[in-house]
Amino acid sequence: MKLRVSTVQYHLHTIRSFEDFAQQVEYYVRAALEFETDFILFPEFFTTQLLSIGNDKGEPLSINELPDFTVQYLDLFTSLAVKTKTHIIGGTHVIRNNDKLYNVAHLFYPDGTVATQAKLHITPTEVNEWNMAAGDELHLFDTEKGRIAILTCYDIEFPEIVRMAKARGADVIFCPSCTDDRHGFHRVRYTSHARAIENQVYVVTASTVGSLPTIDFMRMNFGQSAIIAPNDVPFPPRGIVVEGELNNDMVVTGDLDLALLYQVREKGSVTTWRDRRTDLYNDWESSFINVP
User: Fold this and answer.
1) What pLDDT is stored for residue 49 in this prediction?
2) Ordered structural domains, the chain, with CATH
3) Which of 58, 127, 167, 269 could pair with 288 in a Cys bridge, judged by C-beta atoms 3.0 to 4.6 Å apart?
């Protein structure tokens, strides 16, 4: 099975209306479609751009008001996925559920179905400044191009959750992210490489770039989207299928060959998934079945 993936380096800047946001989103989708892509990944927290629209007093909106755009967000991305017959991972959007805020990734299927994955590990800023809550369940998503998982930014820094996704059959981990400096960016980037090597899976990252000068904790962004593969002979030497130009507004596209994953798991230079020392540590993955 082969699939083509496009990942967006989304440029955050001040806008005046939801229509401005929609036009920017459609621009990236059209750019990706020029390469006949199967999946389009947007980054984490990119909908915070909507907060820059402000209120009738000229003040920026707060994070508590971002869920007010949920219906428009869902309508926009559902329409684009159906119209383009493409799987679109609409980054993350903040939703409200039982008076709690959640940072939730949305997968829009070509048939109009919408699936969600709440961020499972919440950063101190999300907790202390935005009073956000963590999701409590990992979901796997079946598509016509294989089984995928969506783990948001900080999630990828925890090896256990990626082990669980792989054990349940995910071959591609999509990781929308949002980082404001080099330290945060490289934490996500380096751990994405580690997760790809440990589990012999692809990891696709998407980053925010640009700035929102009026929005707290979104004033600066540092990012680079990439498609990351295990470091073995069938793949590029640095484990990078493709990457963007650092901090530039762009879309990058690359091809993923799932057959190569199965090949290296069976007879690669190293077979990290197969060679786990379950005599030394718990093999909780064994509770899952039908794992290739």
Assistant:
1) 98
2) 2-267 (3.60.110.10)
3) 167
Under a CB-based contact definition with an 8 Å cutoff, are residues 179 and 151 in contact? no
Residue with tokens 């993955």: 285
Token representation of residue 30: 């059209």
Residue 237: count other Cβ atoms within 10 Å of its Cβ.
Answer: 8
| The model scores a pTM over 0.70 | yes
DSSP codes joined into one string, 201-224: -EEEEEEEEE--TTSTT-S-----
Residues 223, 226, 230, CA angle at the centre, nearest 5°? Answer: 135
Q: What is the C-alpha separation between 79 and 110, in angstroms, rounded? A: 9
Q: Of these residues, 126, 145, 153, 175, which one is catalytic?
A: 153
Handedness of CA 44, 46, 50, 54 (dihedral sign): positive
144 is catalytic: no
178 is catalytic: no
Distances (CA, A) of 118 to 9, 11, 67, 73, 164: 21, 23, 14, 16, 16
The values of phi and psi at residue 110, to 5°, are -60, -20
* Annotated active-site residue in 119, 126, 145, 166: 119
Q: What is the pLDDT of residue 292?
A: 44
Catalytic annotation, pick one of 19, 26, 36, 44: 44
Number of C-alpha atoms within 13 angstroms, CB side, residue 226?
24
Q: What is the pLDDT of residues 188-208, one digit of tens each?
A: 999 999 999 999 999 999 999
- Percent with pLDDT over 70 in the chain: 97
